[in-house]
Design brief:
The chain is an all-alpha fold and 595 residues long. It contains 24 helices and no strands. GO terms for molecular function: potassium:proton antiporter activity; sodium:proton antiporter activity.
């Protein structure tokens, strides 16, 4: 157990640890004491996580938007960390408060990113791909250089000693890490059906956040390669090379993710794994980590590779899975993502009492927060103006929505984890300032999101509200792609690049990797669950007919799935329908359906 414990994010640190790679002999009594000590730490972590998840449930249940779930986990960590500190004032006897950043990147972050790509609403995402890419790529670059330049200017003017005034690369490293936007608190509120958040706004915020994380990590790692504290002049002259390396790493990561996705889909399409759902789900899970670890071992971005891998697997491989594996895999990744996000925000609260604020300068944190606000404004408004010039009048991004986009640029787990990997002697100062900015934006900005949406009218009309809030069909919740825009005529001929891709995809790629054209009946032989529905072909494409929902109902009825999904709503009766209107049976907060 102790060997496993030390790899948990709350790193167990013993006072008698030696720097020698060869462990010293220990007596059985010492091993027993160590085991008991480790067990206490895991117990405390487990209880705290359960408390955070239960608080998140109460917040969602009671629609208490002033404190988002991520902010609640962070505040819970602050309270628990304070109690642990009071119980044991000695700094070096609090292993519960320490975090291993590498475990975050290799264990906790992959499920979050893959789940974001796998459950992505592809139609909304690609319909707004131009502003999303502009904000995520160009905007992150602009933000990095604005924040980095302003921080370096403070050092050059002698206003702070916590920044290297001779090396601009250190300031750019901080600019890259603090440009990682992580609006988990905002998205959890925007995704609530009863708030009827504007669909375009949700798509822009979500799309920017998932790509921005990958871009910020690639930028940080790229600048870190060129960080040379012993030769600051050389580091400054390497900025163009670093930008070229950033572009190469980004493209390479996307290619790796797509290739692994195609390989996985081809394997599932041309084997009979669907007859063994346990192996089917296990191999899918392992291929995801294979994609991430392969990209990282090639010094590419595992995050960017995994996100596009998830999109491609959702497009092709979801048709190759048995129905039971499709549901199981989606729920496993969603559950892992929830636990990982809760754990990270919990730790950020605990870190307040692990000595991170020993080198904290409140004035410096306030100024850096102002730099972040200015940097976000410097790219949101100009880039939106350029994007609007290429969009139809009815599809332009209004000024009120731009204000919301500017406000919801929260900083979170990615920024803090990157700060933990900050090189140089000023690391602790950057960690403290980053943690302060993350706490402020998550608690304050996240808490004001609902009021801001109300003030600027970023909600759907009331008629849409009732339809979205009361249409609690569990089958549409299980398969959100079925409730996307169906207004397009089935006979419409697609034109342009989209039309060319759709025809090529249907004629060549889907028969090879899985999809609508020639798709196998998923899970026919999965333990005989579907013998009575051998003629059923389930189709999950965005433009599918409504009959597919009926077929899925029949399947879930045959295995008892619908009873498990609907038993609570039946027992409570119609009188409680308004109270339960925001319950998502799969635990994922989807945004309102597209009109």
């Amino acid at each position: 157990m102790s060997h496993f414990i030390k790899y948990l994010p709350f790193h167990i640190r013993h006072l008698d640890e030696s720097s020698s790679p060869t462990p010293s002999p220990t007596s059985p009594d010492d091993n027993e004491e160590t085991h008991e000590y480790d067990a206490h730490n895991v117990l405390l972590l487990n209880i705290t996580l359960i408390l955070c998840v239960f608080i998140a449930y109460l917040i969602k249940r009671n629609r208490f938007y002033a404190v988002p779930e991520s902010a609640a986990a962070m505040l819970t960590g602050i309270v628990i960390g304070g109690l642990v500190r009071l119980a044991s004032p000695e700094q070096d006897k609090l292993p519960f408060l320490y975090f291993n950043a590498e475990v975050f990147f290799f264990l906790l972050l992959p499920p979050i990113i893959f789940e974001a790509g796998y459950t992505l609403r592809r139609k909304s995402f690609f319909a707004n791909i131009t502003p999303i890419v502009a904000y995520a790529f160009v905007g992150t670059l602009v933000s990095t250089f604005v924040v980095g330049g302003l921080v370096f200017s403070l050092a050059k003017m002698g206003l702070t000693s916590a920044v290297d005034e001779t090396n601009p690369m250190e300031s750019l490293l901080f600019g890259a890490l603090i440009s990682a936007v992580d609006p988990v608190a905002t998205l959890s509120i925007m995704g609530s059906p009863e708030l009827q958040c504007d669909q375009l706004l949700y798509s822009l915020v979500f799309g920017e956040s998932v790509l921005n994380d990958a871009v910020a990590i690639v930028l940080f790692k790229t600048f870190r390669k060129y960080y040379a504290p012993e030769d600051p002049d050389l580091a400054g002259s390497d900025i163009p090379s670093a930008l070229f390396s950033f572009v190469a790493v980004s493209l390479g990561s996307i290619i790796v993710g797509l290739l692994i996705g195609l390989l996985t889909s081809f394997l599932y399409k041309h084997t009979r794994l669907y007859e063994y759902p346990r192996f089917e789900t296990a191999i899918l899970f392992l291929f995801c980590y294979l994609c991430y670890s392969l990209a990282e071992s090639m010094e590419l971005s595992g995050i960017m590779a995994l996100f596009f891998n998830g999109i491609l697997l959702s497009h092709y491989n979801s048709y190759n899975l048995s129905e039971i594996s499709y549901i199981t895999a989606e729920q496993i990744f969603a559950t892992l993502a929830v636990v990982a996000e809760t754990l990270v925000f919990l730790y950020m609260g605990l870190s307040v009492f692990n000595g991170a604020f020993e080198s904290w300068n409140p004035l410096m944190s306030f100024m850096m927060l102002g730099f972040c606000v200015l940097a976000r404004a410097s790219h949101i408004f100009p880039l939106t103006w350029l994007v609007n010039r290429c969009r139809s009048p009815s599809n332009k991004i209004p000024m009120k929505m731009q204000y919301v986009l500017w406000f919801v640029g929260l900083r979170g787990a990615i920024a803090f984890a990157l700060a933990e990997n900050m090189p140089g002697p000023n690391k602790q100062s950057y960690v403290a300032n980053t943690l302060c900015i993350c706490i402020f934006t998550t608690v304050v900005c996240g808490g004001f999101t609902e009021r801001l949406l109300t003030k600027f009218g970023m909600k759907q009309p009331d008629g849409v509200t009732a339809e979205l809030a009361h249409n609690s069909d569990p089958y549409e919740s299980l398969f959100p792609s079925n409730r996307l825009n169906r207004s397009t005529s089935a006979g419409r001929i697609a034109v342009g690049i989209h039309g060319f891709w759709k025809r090529a995809d249907n004629l060549y790629f889907k028969p090879l990797f899985g999809g609508t054209e020639g798709a196998r009946r998923r899970g026919q032989s999965a333990h005989g669950l579907h013998d009575s529905h051998e003629t059923t072909q389930i189709n999950f494409d965005d433009d599918d007919d409504e009959e597919e929902d009926t077929e899925m109902r029949r399947f879930l009825d045959s295995v008892g799935g619908s009873e498990g999904v609907e038993r609570k709503s039946r027992s409570r009766g119609a009188s409680n329908s308004e109270e339960d209107e925001d319950v998502d049976p799969v635990g994922r907060y989807d945004p309102p359906a597209e009109p």
